[in-house]
Design goal:
Strand order of the largest sheet: 3-9-8-7
Order of helices and strands: EEEHEEEHEHHHEHEH
Shape: globular
Radius of gyration: 16 Å
Mean pLDDT: 90
Oligomer: single chain
Largest sheet: 4 strands, parallel
Number of helices: 7
Distance between the termini: 27 Å
Helix content: 25-40%
Length: 190
């Protein structure tokens, strides 16, 4: 991120001159209060929003409209990008098709651990189980850069702990860059 700024209509400044360099294989946490610009920054990375100034580069190449580089990035966020009528198991299949592969063995382990019914339609899931379905997808796609925006939204304490354990396991199993954005600073300190 090189001097990234984002201003919205009406003059509200979400980001101002943010510069940050991440190394491949790094796990990092973006923390700050709600409204600090964490989600805005992650949305700019994934071309869901565009910077007013500055640029985001991957291996020295701009990410804006760069499909090859963007295919290395996965952003899990509050946004529901899949149709609500789609079953969870079909979300996994679509993700496998879009990214060329999927860690089905790990997904099966996660589905069992979180007691997720993959035959349910996405819209029938509670907020917590929607987060779980999206987290499983994020941990099982083959991308080298995984961005998790408020990943534990709606999860109870037991499932949050379970997620953090599986996040570390996914990182140890296949080191890649994980960036977790959260306002739960005390919780992620451990």
């Amino acid at each position: 991120f090189e001097h990234v700024s984002k201003a919205y209509l009406g003059g509200r400044q979400a980001l101002q001159g943010v510069s940050l360099h991440l190394q491949p294989g790094e796990m990092a946490f973006l923390t700050g209060h709600s409204g600090a610009g964490k989600s805005t920054l992650l949305n700019i990375i994934n071309n869901r929003s565009f910077a007013s100034a500055g640029q985001v580069l991957l291996d020295g190449k701009p990410l804006t409209e760069n499909e090859k580089e963007l295919n290395q990035i996965y952003l899990m966020s509050e946004d529901n990008l899949f149709p609500g009528s789609m079953k969870v198991k079909d979300i996994f299949k679509i993700s496998a098709g879009l990214y060329g592969t999927f860690d089905w063995e790990f997904a099966t382990e996660l589905v069992a651990a979180f007691e997720l019914d993959t035959n349910l339609k996405f819209r029938k899931l509670s907020t917590g189980y929607r987060s779980i379905a999206k987290l499983i997808t994020a941990l099982c796609v083959p991308c080298d850069y995984i961005f998790l925006d408020e990943p534990v939204l709606g999860l109870d304490a037991n499932y949050r702990d379970l997620f953090y354990g599986y996040l570390v396991e996914a990182y140890e199993k296949r080191p890649r860059t994980f960036i977790v954005s959260t306002h739960l600073i005390e919780e992620i300190t451990n």
